[in-house]
Sequence to fold (411 residues):
Amino acid sequence: MTRFIRNHVDDTPIVDNVFAVVDLAKKAKAQLGEAAVVDATIGALYDESGQLVAFRSVYRPYNEIESKIKANYAESFSGNPDFRKQVYNWVVQQADMRLAHSTIATPGGSGAVSTTINNILDQGETLIIPDIAWGSYRLMATMNNMDVETYNLFEGDHFNIASFKEVCKSVMDKQKKVLVIINDPCHNPTGYSLSQEEWEEVVMFLNEIGEQGPVVMLNDIAYIDYSYDFKNSRNYLETFNAISDNVAIVVAFSSSKTLTAYGLRCGAAVIMAQSDESVRQIEIVMEKSARAIWSNIPNAAMENLVYVTTEGLNDYLEEKDYFVSLLEERSKIFLKEAKEVGLKHYPYKEGFFVTLKIEDKDLCTKLHEACMKEHIYTVQVNKGIRIALCSLSIEKTKGLAKRIKEIFDTL
Ligand code: PLP
Fold:
């Protein structure tokens, strides 16, 4: 057959485990009724009656935006100026940041992650990600003929700094450059958040390898606004102030999660470095990429983010806080029951997901399938099974750990 597509691209079809199981869960619900099915697959916020949450404090103002504003192009390829400014304010909040910075609007956090990968690495180079990670990182790299190396995310119940260092060092030795992703706080899919001390050690180490070549750390903060201690959720950013001249940071922000606006495709890449020149260098290529790939970001989505996080802030925080408490309650129930029955999971602190710890792939597959037979739908990830507490009601969370443990014990 004639090959129409690029020579150097993996042309095997995408295997999207999440959507396949989501579909099975949907069918089971249609056949057996909602009550008979536990659907812990969906990575979006759902309320207690099983409905997708669309914050009233976000959509009421959005629906009042004039059609002409919705219809119009954005003011610039890098995003509307007030949006760029306000995203930075929102991302850093009360953190005392002293780095040069600039913000580029992107289609969701996905756009921020992919523009960073594409503009920092050349084809054939290696991206470093955690071994347990959001699947799109690998796809974004491999679609651009980049390799991926993984560090072990955990050692016992904490961040595996030794593995992080070892992998970064070996990639630096090989390619004289490092791009590494840390998805934190509220890591997808484990719900881990690094401590201040762990971040300090990460930054010190990045400076150390920065002596051998440029280092870019991509901090994917997609779920940050679901931190259980929202007020202090930005404190760790202050550790970034200590980066050397050879280290740059891109913080990938997702409006999808923050505003429950997954379909509005809005997010941002916040570039930080010690000098304006370093920031400008990255900003220039990201701006050109934006123009070359997606052109501009929905005008009204940007306008609404500015409104919701300024004039509409109290309404928004009140509504979001309610759902964050709900998430916390769901997680407390699950974790308590998991502990009681001895169901192992990776260290969880906060956020949308808990991941059961099953390092043996065959056993993991067996449990995943056995759960589906009992109409418990989850997502199998590397070294574990992801339970989406974000979309599970308190009622459905109760007793779930015990049921899974019982299924596990039959294998
Ligand atoms: N980062 C992580 C870890 C995610 O799980 C997601 C979405 O699921 C994103 C980034 C990006 O989401 P979006 O492009 O909708 O902002």
Observations:
- The first helix runs from residue 17 to 32.
- The first strand starts at residue 38 and ends at 39.
- The chain has a mean pLDDT of 96.
- Residues 92 and 234 are 6 Å apart (CA to CA).
